[in-house]
Amino acid sequence: MGTTGWTPEEYGQVTLLRAANGGGYPYGNSLLVRGSAGTLLVDPSLALVEQDALPAADAVVVSHAHEDHLVAIDAFDAPVHVHTADLPAVRDTQVLLAGYGLPADATAELADSLAAEFRVRSRPDAVGVPDGHRFDLGDRTATVVHLPGHTAGHCGLLVEPDGFLYIADIDLTSFGPYYGDRVSSLEGFERSIEICGSVDARWFGTFHQKGVVEGADEFRRRLRAYREVIGRRDEALTEFLAEPRSLADVVDHRFVYRPHVEAPHVESVEARTAEQHIARLVRTGVVAEVEPGRYRAVAG
Questions:
Q1: Tens of pLDDT along 102-133?
Q2: Is the pLDDT of residue 212 over 90?
Q3: CA atoms of 177 and 228, how far apart (whole Å)
């Protein structure tokens, strides 16, 4: 396998278009669902564009409004569907950019990357779909499963009768759940993890890295490990707040990214993530605001 492009992996009538690098960002593993009455392409990725081999599809489904899932969607002569909560961001790249919650200089840099690297354009004709919407492909269906948290409209797709649940950016990686955008939600992400664990399927597919996990038991084991990252962030943050600290102190300490990671979005993601954890720890009495903007773990 080379460093660019993709290869097909078949799971019933579902094909994972496996990125050559395994789906590590900025690449990802797109999905093709073929039925007797139509074909869906899910999350067109950079791997497809680099191989210059865009598969034919009757409709495109975007799991959520992030740049790596929107690659060159205007290259497809097919309707584009996304959950209604993320629809404004797909229709207008300015709304997409605002959703990240980045400072002005980082937003400008991302805007350039959207156009040049990911070939993302506003898609004002995109169609919003609700939770439970069913794409009828003739001999099979693909049902939208709303899994918010990563973004407000983040969704999976349950393909039947194949028994394939695509969970997009609930990606089971050791990095753990990402809920660091302005439109993200820690508690929404936790509920979505519970929803994923409640689905009995044969195969479970992710956009990044893991690809496909076979078997509900193995999937739930990996899902538990993935969720435990949230608990470890709580524990590490509580330990760090053994003495009064500000949000800036928490951001500098790095609870999401490793210290060597340098990127324009890092501080914003660290801050948004920490704000959500601290707010919950305060609500549950584990942490107290000892003076305006400074927090400390409650002894005992």
A1: 999 999 999 999 999 999 999 999 999 999 99
A2: yes
A3: 10
Picking from 83, 156, 95, the residue whose alpha carbon sits closest to that of residue 120 is: 95
Exposure string over 139-167, b if 16+ CB within 10 A, otherwise e: ebbbbbbbbbbbbbbbbbbbbeebbbbbb
Question: What pLDDT, on a 0 to 100 scale, did the predictor assign at position 2?
Answer: 46
Q: pLDDT, tens digit, for every residue of 262-278?
A: 888 999 999 999 999 99
- Does the pTM surpass 0.90? The reply is yes
Tokens at 28, concatenated: 């990802």
146-179: pLDDT as tens digits: 999 999 999 999 999 999 999 999 999 999 999 9
Residue 52: burial class (beta carbons within 10 Å; 0-12, 13-18, 19+): exposed
Output the six-digit token pair for 89: 């961001």
* Residue with token string 């078997």: 215
* Nearest-5° Cα angle at 33, 163 to 113: 115
Instruction: List the one residue out of 200, 163, 190, 122 whose CA is nearest residue 33.
Output: 163
Please name every residue paired with 214 in a beta bridge, in sequence order, or none if there are none. 203
**Is residue 114 within 8 Å of 97, Cβ to Cβ?**
yes
Residue 96 CB coordination number (10 Å) = 24
